[in-house]
């Protein structure tokens, strides 16, 4: 091609150099665009992984009172079933998770969740529906441990994207379930079966993330972006794929205890509040029946959790130089414990004037727990190798599940005790429990 305004005295050698520089510049620009595109795919992929996982998880939690309708089984039993197998998995999977491909994690999670939803929806005996929740726990464990730890092998923003996705899924699940069962009068079992249709997204997302991962940008089909390493030097990818030794894993476990302990207490307070305390607080002056109180409490909780888990991604995206995490995670745990004890007093002495106050308190619980979750996992393995981060983040799931399980065990006796205490304080004892005792827990507005 002819070049405009080209100096006449330029030699053929100089022209060739200029051609090479232009070609290199164009190649660098193309690689930069490809890198940006791949980065967006990674961020979007882990965001979607978390959204789908938490839509299913939080919908099952929100449906707890419906699943246990016509029984006096404590609400916390659903939490125990949903987290006991998961807790066992946290004791094993962190040590082997680096050997499991992303696609395998996605497919196994989808299969467990599909089987669980079918069992919960189709089993007619309320107590036996807990079998389906046990299966759901296996899907949750595979998904959260697998996808959360995998963020360590990708850019830093993926952990913020995953945390944001958990918050987004946590609000979408209860919102969809509440809309279907309360406003559209869809039967609860049918609403649960709807979720089966979103499960194929798991392997689809895994395929996109694997195909467009940053680690593959150097292996394009054209071969133009191949990264070379001098003989005797360590490749960056070797550093990523090098597994930790047993001693290194033990050392990493000890190093993350300062995050694990506050996380344990925070999750304990969070789940006991939502699954054993607010289930005993309803108001006769409210415009809806006792069953719907729980739906609104969980909605406000998950809205708060979305805000708590997503602020990191928003700030990091807009202001990359801002510090969005704090090592003082004990502050969040303290707030959650104070909120728990206050709501226990509220249930015992019934001094709150309106359900709106409870919704505000559950919103605070959700936003604080969300911030605790984000800060803990963002700090796990910070400034260390990708494999160290991967193990550290998987290790922290032990604290999460231990806190949830202890909360569930306490809820088994605390919820019945608070409910029994309430029956001696108010005349209309229907408002001592946010559950129907007459078949699948359908809103009374759907019975008219």
From TrEMBL:
Region (Disordered): 1-33
Membrane topology recorded in Swiss-Prot or TrEMBL: Multi-pass membrane protein
Pfam families according to UniProt: CLN3
Record localization: Endomembrane system; Lysosome membrane
Entries under InterPro entries matching the protein: Battenin_disease_Cln3 (IPR003492), MFS_trans_sf (IPR036259)
GO cellular component terms attached to this protein's record: endomembrane system; lysosomal membrane
Transmembrane segments: 39-57, 77-97, 106-124, 130-150, 157-177, 189-209, 255-274, 294-318, 330-350, 356-374, 394-414
Alphabetical UniProt keywords: Lysosome, Membrane, Transmembrane, Transmembrane helix, Transport
Composition bias, Basic and acidic residues: 1-18
Single GO BP term: regulation of intracellular pH
The keyword Transmembrane appears for this protein: yes
UniProt-listed PANTHER family: BATTENIN
Recorded family membership: Belongs to the battenin family.
Annotated protein name in UniProt: Battenin
Organism: Actinia tenebrosa
Taxonomic lineage: Eukaryota, Metazoa, Cnidaria, Anthozoa, Hexacorallia
């Amino acid at each position: 091609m002819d070049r405009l305004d080209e100096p006449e005295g330029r030699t053929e050698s100089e022209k060739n150099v200029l051609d090479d520089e232009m070609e290199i510049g164009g190649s660098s620009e193309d690689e930069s665009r490809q890198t940006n595109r791949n980065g967006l795919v990674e961020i979007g992929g882990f965001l979607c992984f978390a959204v789908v996982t938490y839509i299913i998880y939080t919908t099952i939690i929100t449906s707890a009172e419906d699943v246990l309708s016509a029984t006096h089984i404590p609400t916390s039993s659903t939490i125990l079933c949903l987290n006991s197998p998961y807790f066992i998995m946290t004791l094993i999977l962190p040590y082997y998770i680096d050997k499991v491909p992303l696609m395998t994690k996605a497919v196994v999670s989808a299969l467990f969740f599909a089987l669980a939803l079918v069992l919960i929806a189709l089993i007619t005996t309320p107590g036996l529906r807990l079998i389906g929740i046990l299966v759901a726990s296996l899907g949750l464990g595979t998904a959260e441990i697998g996808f959360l730890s995998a963020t360590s092998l990708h850019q830093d923003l993926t952990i913020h994207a995953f945390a944001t996705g958990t918050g987004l899924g946590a609000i979408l699940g209860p919102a969809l379930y509440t809309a279907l069962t309360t406003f559209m009068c869809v039967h609860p079992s049918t609403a649960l079966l709807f979720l089966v249709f979103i499960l194929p997204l798991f392997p689809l997302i895994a395929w996109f993330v694997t195909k467009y991962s940053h680690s593959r940008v150097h292996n394009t089909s054209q071969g133009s972006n191949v990264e070379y390493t001098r003989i005797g030097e360590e490749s960056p990818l070797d550093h990523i794929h090098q597994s930790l030794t047993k001693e290194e894993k033990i050392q990493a476990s000890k190093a993350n205890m300062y995050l694990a302990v506050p996380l344990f207490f925070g999750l304990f307070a969070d789940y006991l509040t939502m699954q054993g305390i607010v289930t005993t607080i309803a108001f006769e002056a409210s415009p809806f029946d006792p069953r719907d109180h729980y739906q609104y409490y969980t909605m406000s909780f998950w809205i708060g959790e979305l805000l708590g888990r997503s602020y990191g991604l928003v700030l990091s995206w807009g202001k990359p130089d801002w510090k969005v995490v704090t090592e003082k995670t004990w502050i969040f745990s303290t707030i959650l414990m104070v909120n728990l004890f206050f709501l226990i007093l509220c249930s015992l002495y019934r001094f709150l004037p309106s359900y709106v106050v409870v919704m505000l308190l559950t919103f605070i619980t959700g936003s604080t727990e969300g911030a605790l979750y984000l800060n803990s996992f963002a700090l796990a393995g910070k400034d260390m190798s990708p494999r160290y981060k991967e193990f550290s983040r998987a290790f922290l799931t032990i604290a999460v599940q231990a806190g949830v399980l202890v909360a569930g065990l306490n809820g088994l006796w605390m919820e019945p005790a608070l409910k029994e205490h309430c029956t001696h304080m108010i005349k209309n004892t229907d408002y001592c429990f946010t559950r129907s005792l007459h078949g699948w827990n359908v809103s009374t507005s759907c019975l008219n």
